[in-house]
Amino acid sequence: MNIYSDPTFDMACRQLDRVAERLGMPDSERERLKAPKRSLVVAVPVRMDDGTTRVFSGYRVQHHLTLGPTKGGIRYHPEVSLGEVAALAMWMSWKCALAGLPYGGAKGGVTVDPRSLSAGELERLTRRFTQELVGFIGPQLDIPAPDMGTNEQTMAWMMDTFSVHAGHSVPGVVTGKPVGIGGSLGRREATGRGVAYLAGRAMDTLGVQASGGTAVVQGYGNVGAIAAHSLSRQGLRILAVSDVHGGIHNTRGLDMPRVDAWALEHGTLRGFPDADPITNSDLLELPCDVLAPCAMERQITGMNAPRLRCRILAEGANGPTTPEADAVLEARDDVFVIPDILCNAGGVVVSYFEWVQGLQSFFWTEGEVMDRLFRILEGAFNQTLQLARRDQVSMRTAALTLGIRRVWEAKRVRGLFP
Ligand code: NAD
Known about the structure:
Rossmann fold; 2 domains; 47% helix
């Protein structure tokens, strides 16, 4: 499996091995669950604004095809690699199975810093990447969505390019589209709102009062900003937030509308008045009720896990906590972890709603979307908590067990093909 060799893929495999061991899964079946079913690596040549041509690397990995089409985001980030995308695809598989969605996991990405490209360059990059994916994606095959560095506009370009090839509009090829071209109300907010909803459930479980509580959020993008606002609406004080350049911190709580206005005007949180600067690593160690890492993988490690001072770790990002950090947190027993595949599942759940609404050409109100979303998250949270308590295992092990077992069982009854 060395074409996927990468620290994040290694981390996903170690998590799978641990659960497979618990489930008594034979080695051969474990290998089937580990190996991504298929992967596509493409060169994406793009004409730059200055007339030169640059060639970017693009990836799409479909982890398993056993339960339906595959589903997962498209990431634009300088650290995107085949191994990272494969790990994220595997996590999508367990996440979809945990939430009971009829999908296998997928992920895609381009190794690029999207902030260094003009809008025109980004459009040409997206359209060319999509062109390379024609034949590999589709409403019944594999359905991309936004992830880090991509957004509704990216999805609109992907849908348009795919539709040009098909000769008619194919809105179901992506989710996370603008509402005006078949997107779902509530999709943009779904992941962050889900993070805050589940943090609220964890507070209920621990008997922590939301009103007067405190939260710290790493990553102020789609997931982090919405999570911060939703937590603030629940009555928590937001002590610190950050982006790739670093964080801002105020023990009295940040004025969130002013933070938004600053970020919009300056494109960064840096320099925000009424707050002290703080590094991304120091921010993780602030005392708070809810710590929500909503940026990159492998932020909480064996080194800093002993120094976390939160009551609840709400993993908005995918893979923010390494297996070494998990071991520390399990031994500490004073941090309640809402694992990524549960905590950030709101995005793919509403993507599923968008896909269903599109297939039926029958659209729901935002209230209906949110109501159905919270019901699914509630069910997944309760099942995970119940298993964790019954088997005396961590919330992560319980969530992974539920997701992995469902995929394993589906593979067993179907046979070798998918
Ligand atoms: P985004 O691009 O909208 O925002 C990412 C944020 O993280 C930005 O504020 C960026 O400045 C910051 N950031 C980037 N690198 C960083 C670093 N090294 N340290 C600190 N901050 C950094 O992305 P997003 O869609 O909000 O995704 C964030 C995370 O949530 C990712 O792990 C993604 O896989 C996960 N996720 C996203 C969705 C979704 O619906 N968008 C769903 C599930 C999971």
